[in-house]
Amino acid sequence: MRANVTEYDLIAPATLTAALATLAEGRHTLIAGGTELMVALSAGRLPKKPLLSINHFSELRFMDVTPETITIGSGTTFTDLRRHPMIASDFPLLSQAASWTGSIANQNRGTLGGNIVNASPAADSPPALLAYDAELTLISTAGRRTMPYRDFYLGYKKTALRPDELLHSITLKRIFHGYISYTRKVGTRNAQAISKVAIAALARMKNGFIEDIRIGAASLREFPIRLTAAETILTGKPINAAAIAAARAALFAETRPIDDIRSTSNYRSIVAANLLEEFLQSV
């Protein structure tokens, strides 16, 4: 049943400090771009709590580039990501993911931070961020803390974010020159489709052997994951039929896709293994 928008109050504090103080009260739902919350509102699934807007804070919408890293504010939109030359050159998997996220209107409003904390197993940006081994900075009135993105998800729609915290920024190391990159999203349509399965992968070769490999995936578990078992099996190996077969077996063992209205578990497993093999063949 569709909710009545007039039943929801919204406040927009003048400063980020004030917003964090309000968040610490524990009575509000954060809203930035709102692309996911409006879906929940329309479906009548949004909790009846006042909304706390953080969309207007420039402190959360930035991209800070240094020779070693790029730090992306959580309020950065997908359009910002698509248009930034450093993202395109150093982190093409993330640039591609940004172009897949909904319509142009969604990309103009939707934020990278929202895509992360919404914790959808099928979200577009997590596979790339996992492959790039992103680090998250979380802030609250108590201060700030950092954590590896790979440790952020605890279960379906559950994260390590405390009730009084918000995601401030995402940091990526600029160490992936020389890596071969690959990403594929399989959906019902070529655009504006939730993924049935998606993979983002990086590999660095040395003398015909895999020196380093990173594989992020969506829609294969209850949250986005790194395929660490497949990575372990492949590291230090040449790419041949035996290695590919072992990697496919590892993927089947470490994933637990579900049956839902978009696809079946069996389809997701087989397609994901095929995408992994396609990546390895391209390497």
From TrEMBL:
SUPFAM superfamilies: CO dehydrogenase flavoprotein C-terminal domain-like, FAD-binding/transporter-associated domain-like
Coiled coil: none
GO molecular function: FAD binding; oxidoreductase activity
Domain FAD-binding PCMH-type positions: 1-177
A Pfam short name: CO_deh_flav_C
Keywords, ordered alphabetically: FAD, Flavoprotein, Oxidoreductase
Gene3D superfamilies, per the entry: 3.30.465.10, CO dehydrogenase flavoprotein, C-terminal domain, Uridine Diphospho-n-acetylenolpyruvylglucosamine Reductase, domain 2
InterPro entries cross-referenced by the UniProt entry: CO_DH_flav_C, CO_DH_flav_C_dom_sf, Diverse_Substr_Oxidored, FAD-bd_PCMH, FAD-bd_PCMH-like_sf, FAD-bd_PCMH_sub1, FAD-bd_PCMH_sub2, Mopterin_DH_FAD-bd
Protein name: CO/xanthine dehydrogenase FAD-binding subunit
Source species: Granulicella arctica
Lineage: Bacteria, Pseudomonadati, Acidobacteriota, Terriglobia, Terriglobales
